[in-house]
Amino acid sequence: MSNARTANFSRRGLLATGGALGLGAFLAACGDSDSKDSGSDSTAGAKASGPWTFKDDRGTTVKLDQVPANIVAFTGVAAALYDYGVSVKGVFGPTKTADGKPDVQAGDMDVSKLTVLGNVWDQFNVEKYATLAPDVLISTMFDDAGTLWYVPEASKDKIAQLAPSVGISVYDRQLTKPLERMWELAESLGGDMTSAKVTDAKKRFEAAATRLRAAAKAKPEIKVMAGSASQELFYVSGTNLSIDLEYFKALGVNFVEPPESAKKEGGGWFESLSWENVDKYAADIIMMDDRSSTIQPAEVSEATWKKLPAVKAGQVIGRSPEPILSYDKCVPLVEDLAEAIEKAKKVS
After folding, report:
1. Exposed / middle / buried, residue 193 (Cβ in 10 Å: 0-12, 13-18, 19+)
2. 65, 74, 143, 79: which is closest to 110 by C-alpha?
């Protein structure tokens, strides 16, 4: 779709075909006009106007007559944009926990004011999406095939007909690259990139990186393992695909690295271990997946876990495998690892 008019033409085309999910009524309600109600939760349109163009990490260039006002995004992307002063109309992906509190991936957003199209994997309310009259959908990509994260395979074609999409790659590159891309995207959407809060966060991130590099250089013997827990298995992440681990490794952090053959079943991302074999690798610090879909360290009851030297020494910290891509949210990720290495004792 090259502009807002062709996007609306696609809506009419879908309406004419009836829509496999009964989208016709919803699309008709959206109207065929290029003028859309931006809603109280969308601020980008007030800060930027005129034609909008953005080339994403698939090499796809999206062109619209106006800067998108009705933005729908993966929750973590929305949280990053929020930090730059760009709000969205709807989100999909982990947004609220079972008790209604903000998911870790929601950042500083007020989740009570968000239209949530799907809170778990493979959940996306296409009908509700249509009612938002979206200008653009934005998500991350965890492969080199252009697969939009948390956009269900079964409904991706219907979703694609409603608005153009933008994909930011978080696959096989260092953290700094997607941070730069999110900055560029937010700036194009009208984000205030010169505010003291934003510029200060970038400086703090650079200072944190310098600190981590120094800590890793001072204690090269400290071995760090990136793990994730489920009821049945413990997963040891490799560093060659994850944006955070690739970056930390480039700064000199000494990571446990499962062999490629062991990571094969995990698509090259991780090795799966039974809890009986959780001590396969020696580590002085364990970074544990902080996502709500995983079991957190305090909830692990396995005796083998509690016997690990790093656990007994209290050298377990959190890790965000899907970091919110704003400098503000990435600062503590770097600082926490730097501090952990600075204070760590060699226990493995």
Report:
1. middle
2. 79
What is the pairing mode between strands 285-289 and 223-229?
Answer: parallel
Which pLDDT value is given to residue 49?
Answer: 73
pLDDT in tens, 326-347: 999 999 999 999 999 999 999 9
- Kindly provide the residue ranges of all beta strands, DSSP E only, lying in 170-243, ordered along the sequence: 223-229, 233-237
Residue 145 structure tokens: 């095939």
Backbone angles phi, psi at 139, to 5 degrees: -150, 175
Residue 77 structure tokens: 């992307």
pLDDT tens digits for 148-201? 999 999 999 999 999 999 999 999 999 999 999 999 999 999 999 999 999 999
DSSP-assigned beta bridge partners for residue 255: 224
- 29: how many CB neighbours lie within 10 A of its CB? 10
* Amino acid of residue 208: A
> Quick check: pTM over 0.70?
yes
Task: Please work out, in degrees rounded to the nearest 5, the angle formed at the alpha carbon of residue 181 by the alpha carbons of 178 and 187.
Answer: 140
**139 bridge partner residues:** 167
DSSP assignment string, 16-61: HH--TTS-HHHHHHH-S-S-----TT--HHHH--S-EEEE-TTSPE
C-alpha span between 217 and 221 (Å, rounded): 9
Integer-rounded Cα Rg, in Å, for the chain is 22
DSSP string, 277-290: GTTSS--SEEEEE-
Residues of the chain short of pLDDT 70, as ranges, are 1-48
> What's the farthest any 2 CA atoms get from each other in the chain?
67
- Residue entry with tokens 């696609």: 10
